[in-house]
Write a structure and sequence with these properties.
Blueprint: E1 5-6, H1 16-27, H2 44-61, E2 67-72, H3 75-87, E3 91-96, H4 99-109, E4 113-119, E5 141-144, E6 146-147, E7 152-153, E8 164-167, E9 184-188, E10 199-204, H5 221-226, H6 236-252, H7 254-275, E11 279-281, E12 292-297, H8 305-314, E13 317-318, E14 329-332, H9 339-356
Parallel strand pairs: 1-13, 3-4, 3-5, 5-8, 8-9
Antiparallel strand pairs: 2-10, 6-7, 9-10, 11-12, 12-14
Helix pairs in contact: 1-6, 2-6, 3-4, 6-7, 7-9
């Protein structure tokens, strides 16, 4: 198979171990003589997969018993509506740090009084707002912890006087998180914990049931808690791949171990961006993401962008084109992206600079 270095923002690189186990399950799942995508989700064998996957989440993030773990369809974009449906009664505040935060806020505004408490739109979302005060008269405060398009990240757990809700689609399981500080953590799986097709939600049970509106059955977190994430047929194959991905992560030493690896990968790449005369980072240094590294050609070298893109592609770099809304380059270095791939990209950048600088 052709060897490439996968920096796609999502769906993204997955561990070889998870892919191999998933291929085996497509051929014969748990000795049933059926593929994992054929087996009944009410079977004993599938129930064991769900139990193991939930147990891995609880162990790896040290999730307290106060919180339930859900696996749902619809992706994080559906969760934008879930959040407002289940938590918005009178008023909610959002930290506006990028496109996905804006989309989450839009859904909330469709149901009630929701507003941006602080925003970094004035500088193209290149930093995380600071100095704001979370009011105590709101139903919840919503953040997007990692901003894939702009390469910024909140790498700490905010102390909030009101229920804290976080979209952690692109940095979940990349670092330790104090889950007890959150009423809800949610996201799509396709960055760090599996393939596209399943979303996760870690919800504090006593935070539910506070709104007076009717909540449609499928948009009520309590429906899925009561149904064990199987009120309707769950996305079985993505959940199976998720389980195997989390087993791989546990084998590495868990989130503490992967955090050290992720920090090292980011340092290697940012150090090259900062020292290479052809490139410059776009995110504020104090807010740089360790998941999505965004950069552009340095002033005076803008005309070389397409040439570098072709140069990198010839050397096996895949998915480094920046989001269509901002251009430039983006290297997504999620959990399963190996250090060797980051080193290969850095070598590519050095080689190009030697030819052009």
């Amino acid at each position: 198979m052709k060897k490439v270095h996968n920096f796609n923002a999502g769906p993204c690189v997955l561990p070889d171990q998870a892919i191999e186990k998933s291929i085996e399950a497509l051929k014969d799942f748990a000795g049933t003589g059926m593929a994992v995508i054929e087996v009944s989700h009410r079977s004993k064998e599938w129930g064991e997969v769900m139990d193991e996957c939930r147990a891995l989440w609880r162990e790896l993030l040290d999730i307290p018993d106060t919180h339930e773990i859900l696996f749902l369809g619809g992706g994080a974009s559906m969760q934008f509506l879930f959040v407002a449906m289940n938590f918005l009664e009178k008023k909610a505040a959002y930290l506006e740090t990028g496109v996905w935060a804006k989309k989450a806020l839009k859904e909330a505004r469709g149901l009630g009084d929701a507003y941006a408490l602080a925003s970094s739109a004035d500088k193209t979302f290149s930093y995380i707002p600071k100095g704001y005060v979370i009011p105590e008269d709101i139903d919840y405060f919503h953040i997007t912890s990692n901003n894939t398009i702009y390469g910024t990240e909140i790498r700490y757990d905010i102390d909030s006087p009101v229920p804290l809700i976080a979209d952690m689609s692109s940095d979940i399981m990349s670092r330790p998180v104090d889950v007890s500080k959150y009423a809800l953590i949610y996201g799509g799986a396709q960055k760090n914990v599996g393939p596209a097709g399943v979303a996760f939600a870690i919800v504090r049970k006593d935070a539910l049931g506070k709104v007076s509106r009717y909540i449609p059955t499928m948009l009520d977190y309590r429906t899925h808690i009561d149904g064990g994430s199987m009120f309707n047929t769950p996305p079985v194959f993505p959940i199976f791949v998720m389980k195997e991905t989390l087993k791989w992560l546990k084998g590495l030493g868990g989130v503490e171990a992967i955090n050290k690896i992720n920090v090292r990968k980011a340092e290697i790449l940012y150090n090259e961006i900062d020292s290479n005369p052809l490139f410059v980072g776009t995110a504020a240094r104090e807010d740089r993401s360790i998941m999505n590294v965004c950069f552009v050609m340095a002033p005076g070298y803008e005309a070389l962008q397409d040439e570098f893109m072709s140069f990198a592609k010839e050397r096996g770099m895949v998915g480094i084109k920046g989001h269509r809304s901002v251009g430039g380059f983006r290297a997504s270095i999620y959990n399963a992206c190996p250090v060797e791939s980051v080193e290969a990209l850095v070598a590519c950048m050095k080689e190009f600079a030697a030819l052009k600088a």
